Please model this.
Amino acid sequence: MATKKAATPRPKRATKEAAPPPTNRFRDRITGMKKVKASQLRAHPKNWRIHNAAQRMALEGIMAEIGFAGAIMTYNDEKGLVIIDGHLRADLANDDTVTVLTTDLTEDEAQKALATFDAIGTMAIPDLFALETLLEPLEFDSHDAEAAIRNIFDADVANLTKREKIKRSQEHNAAGEIPAMELEPQEHYDYVMIVARTRTDWHRLCSTLELSHVRKSQSRSVGLCRVVDVRKFLDIIDAKPLV
Model:
């Protein structure tokens, strides 16, 4: 009687070790998202932003037009959810249900986020041409919202002009130069007229030529005049083309 040979065991295949999951550079502190009534959220006792009437009306106008499009950031303490970012939105929402991001931030970390969350964003230098291109075709139902947006644009222009003036002044001082004095308009001068078709171009020109901004009076004058010495103008455009 034939006997069966014992099957020889096959060699085990080498198994590949699973690659470790990639580690993020920054920790993810978001623990969840939930819907709660805005009235159940507590304002952070150290919130340093004062929301004036103009801001309230502007935000209320935007929220009425596009809806609630941003989650409120919170953290938990022994009494419940505390707002880190979104105080005004929560206040305007009142007893409506809102979307809330929950985090595992400690009290100390929440205070750091409260102090810096929006403040760091304001450090960005605006591209005024891109901003005006964005705003130009937009029409807002809320006059308060539109006025607020335009005021932000004008403030960005003023801040950018101020920074450029300071930089140019520092460059003149470093080179031991004194900026040329601007001339008073006189009838016997020859003139070159530069037309600015947008506010952005006008403010850029004023900034480049170091022209002060003067608000238009209530008179019937057509525009505002500035006079710059031609040598100063040529020095500026040779060093920095107006493009």
